[in-house]
From TrEMBL:
GO BP of this protein: carbohydrate metabolic process
A GO cellular component entry from the record: extracellular region
Protein name: Polysaccharide deacetylase
Gene Ontology MF term list: hydrolase activity, acting on carbon-nitrogen (but not peptide) bonds
Organism encoding this protein: Haloferax marisrubri
Pfam families tied to this protein: Polysacc_deac_1 (PF01522)
Ranges for domain NodB homology: 222-432
Protein's cellular compartments: Secreted
Keywords: Signal
Region (Disordered), start-end ranges: 22-43
Main localisation: secreted
Spans traversing the lipid bilayer: none
């Protein structure tokens, strides 16, 4: 597909609105250096070009994945009856102005003197969540970033499963909750209590809103996606042969304006990897994160990066984005939803069935034990573990080739399905 300069720009920022019917049962980049391989030209443009046609945008995806997936599954609690919830720490109140769905949400608050805010709901007869993944709508007001955890007592405090996700302040987001810690031998057919917590450790205030706790059928098997940021040379020289020896593909987040530099994957190598099943996806990294860029610059950066991928033959991965520095805000999520089906952040751990496709969490693969723990959870609970790498050199904090190979051997040992962004999306896009 060949795009003209005129087609590089467009409008149409999607916004989340309304509620769908909910049925079912209760219950920083180095400078490019000279190389013998000439850099690939990168399109440049002005966002406010008056010649841009505001009509159809050839780079836009067919639908907004956040809107399509935001309320799949069945409702566990809609927070319309606050009397069902008690507090272990901090405080909560009914909120009628900041609402995800329905007439109210709950506002959870902790003062600087509190270590955490923590609410709970009991289920006298227990509920069966053994074949379900949970998601929770969360809107973080302060601080700018923090972790949210959900604990399942199954059936008591000696047998619990702790789920969680990290979140940035970015309006309402549906957090797909993945396992973080197991205590005892939880029986998820008999969950008698669900609690929601944000731990600050004291010294800072916290305020966030929760709404629409939902469950969705669990996948039939665990899977892993192996991702690499910044298209660094070692990904081709080292990681690629190791993965090839197992028949596994990977995903590279490409910074288009660095292609052709000697310390990046050579252009011919990118083609070779794609022919072997790899995805080249968008990684529009600038000197500032998307939390600092203006909406206009966010859109220009996202579109320019995707346009480069499409024009250079990497259409298969062009519908997916790895967030630079793992950071985003509300406008960035809205804009990315115009051009991408899936987005990947820096932290998050294993995730269940995806309900907010723009903020899929990843695990730092440089920490081998952490990576193996995520892989164990993926195998045990049929989760998606997305591993994140940059260099595979062993220098500094980067994983060594031997340690990387150890992790990939473990993937093979567990029998996890190795997916790419495109193959994973193909498997879930029509499930709602």
């Amino acid at each position: 597909m060949n795009l003209s300069r005129r087609s590089y720009l467009g409008l149409s920022a999607a916004a989340l609105s309304g509620c769908v019917a909910r049925g079912g049962e209760p219950g920083g980049t180095p400078e490019a250096t000279a190389t013998s391989e000439p850099p690939v030209p990168t399109p440049r443009f002005r966002y406010d070009d008056p010649s841009v046609d505001a009509g159809g945008d050839p780079l836009a995806v067919a639908f907004n994945s956040r809107e399509r997936f935001r309320d799949v599954g069945w409702l566990v609690d809609d927070f319309e009856d606050e009397r069902l919830w008690g507090t272990f720490a901090g405080r909560y109140a009914v909120e009628e102005e900041v609402v995800y769905c329905g007439s109210q949400s709950l506002r959870l608050e902790a003062t600087p003197d509190d270590e955490r805010v923590w609410i709970y709901r009991t289920f006298e007869d227990g509920i069966d969540l053994s074949e379900a993944d949970l998601s929770l709508a969360v809107n973080l007001e302060t601080p700018d970033t923090e972790g949210v955890t959900v604990r399942l007592a199954a059936p008591d405090y000696d047998n619990t499963l702790l789920l969680g996700r990290h979140i940035w302040k970015a309006g309402w987001q549906r957090l797909d909750l993945g396992p973080q810690r197991v205590t005892g031998s939880p029986d998820l057919t008999n969950v008698t209590e669900i609690s929601i917590q944000m731990y600050t450790g004291g010294g800072t205030a916290a305020r966030f809103y929760v709404d629409s706790l939902r469950a969705k059928p669990r996948a039939g098997a665990g899977s892993v996606m192996i991702t690499f940021d910044d298209n660094t040379r070692s990904q081709y020289d080292t990681a690629y042969p190791i993965l090839e020896s197992h028949g596994f593909p990977g995903v590279v987040g490409v910074i288009p304006w660095t292609v052709g530099s000697s310390h990046r994957i050579p252009r011919s190598g990118m083609d070779e990897m794609v022919e072997s099943g790899w995805d080249m996806v968008s990684h529009p990294q600038q000197s500032d994160s998307f939390r600092v860029l203006s909406p206009a610059d966010q859109r220009a950066s996202i579109r320019e990066s995707k346009a480069w991928l499409v024009e250079n033959g990497f259409e298969r991965g062009a519908d997916f984005i790895i967030w630079p520095y793992g950071r985003y805000n509300e406008s960035a999520l809205d804009i990315a939803s115009d051009y991408h089906y899936l987005g990947f952040v820096t932290v998050g751990g294993p995730t269940g069935a995806v309900s907010d496709p723009q903020i899929v969490g990843r695990t730092d693969g440089d920490d081998v034990q952490k990576a193996k723990k995520a892989l164990d959870f993926a195998a045990q609970y049929n989760q998606l573990a997305v591993l994140m790498y940059h260099d595979v050199t062993g220098r500094g904090r980067a994983v060594s080739p031997a340690a990387f190979a150890e992790t990939i051997d473990y993937v093979d040992e567990l029998g996890l399905d190795v997916v790419t962004a495109s193959s994973y999306w193909e498997s879930v896009r029509d499930t709602v």
